[in-house]
Design goal:
With 201 residues, the protein is α+β, with helices and mostly antiparallel strands. It is built from 5 helices and 8 strands, in the order E-E-E-H-E-E-H-E-E-H-H-H-E. Strands 1, 2, 3, 4, 5, 6, 7 and 8 form an 8-stranded mixed sheet that branches. The longest helix is centred in the last third of the chain and has 21 residues, at 130-150. The two termini are 41 Å apart.
């Protein structure tokens, strides 16, 4: 008796396409498309997007934004903003001889009790002493911590990305040493274990 041949099924034919959108703080814009056989498999996936694609401004070209899919409604995959970082090549160009790069890395808690891992950097116009570097770090931590107490997680992260807080830090640090530039170079949302979204396999 001849064996019956089983027709292979193209896996792409059983998959559905989903539009990935940014959260409300970024206007719920389309930031990508993806396919999955089960929408639940999308929850937890991280999507990386250049900042310029979100804002349309070339001044945000050096920012890499990260969004995590939290919910799928129909054919739309909704996300939340979970962090960003500056491109290393961009930061390298900012570091010059006869000047100082002063950075601080710490965790901060927002008004809605969310924790963010933050890296802030000040590039000075001249080389500064160790004591001034310490004063600059303290000032960066002080201002960011103060602002975090007044803002929810999403609002604070958007302000970091927009550069408004960096400008405020620069104006204060200028009282310590000449400043060439200040950047909130990296931000990452630290989810509690109870909040974590299971990653798809």
């Amino acid at each position: 008796m001849a064996r019956r041949r089983v027709k292979a099924v193209d896996p792409w034919k059983v998959k559905q396409w989903f539009t990935i959108t940014s959260p409300k703080i970024f206007g719920e814009k389309e930031i990508g498309v993806t396919a999955a056989s089960d929408p639940e498999l999308l929850v937890g996936r991280t999507v990386e997007v250049l900042g310029s694609e979100i804002t349309g401004s070339l001044s945000h070209l050096q920012y890499l934004l990260r969004f995590q899919i939290t919910q799928v409604v129909g054919s739309t995959a909704r996300t939340e903003f979970v962090g960003y970082e500056l491109e290393r090549s961009f930061m390298k160009r900012l570091t010059r001889r006869h000047s100082s790069k002063v950075e601080v890395v710490f965790d901060v808690e927002t008004r809605d009790k969310k924790k963010l891992h933050v890296k802030a950097i000040t590039w000075t116009a001249v080389r500064v002493s160790r004591s001034k570097k310490t004063d600059i770090r303290k000032k960066m931590v002080e201002i960011i911590t103060e602002e975090a107490k007044k803002r929810d997680k999403d609002d604070l992260m958007k302000e970091f990305f927009a550069g408004d807080l960096a400008k405020r830090i620069a104006s204060e640090v200028k009282k310590i040493a000449p400043v060439r530039r200040v950047e909130i170079a990296k931000v990452r949302y630290l989810k509690e274990e109870t909040e974590k979204i299971p990653s798809s396999s």
